[in-house]
Design brief:
mainly beta, seven-stranded mixed beta sheet, about 0% helix
Length: about 120
Amino acid sequence: QVRLVESGGGLVQAGGSLRLSCSASGRIFSFNTLGWYRQTPGNQRELVASVTSGGFTSYGDSVKGRFTISRENAENSVYLQMNSLKSEDTAVYYCHLQTIVMATQYEYWGQGTQVTVSS
């Protein structure tokens, strides 16, 4: 079983910064994609950013140029540096891991961490 534990959420003023961290433990295959999604009440979870084990990154349009995702493969950790935060960034942020083993896709979610940006 894979477990993802997030940390780093909280309350910040608009224009400020926060850094989220996520640590994955358990049986984790080397080739995987780690990412961050966010969700607000009544809305679907949306991709914020992701990074493959090879270092390829992808970002949601609303965070490009403001957020940076990075990972530490040796520690199975992923980070999200969030700068120039806006009130619309307020959401629960979830860590996500996706991997494919013998043609079967597996995905895991963290418990979520609240990010609140005050205007």
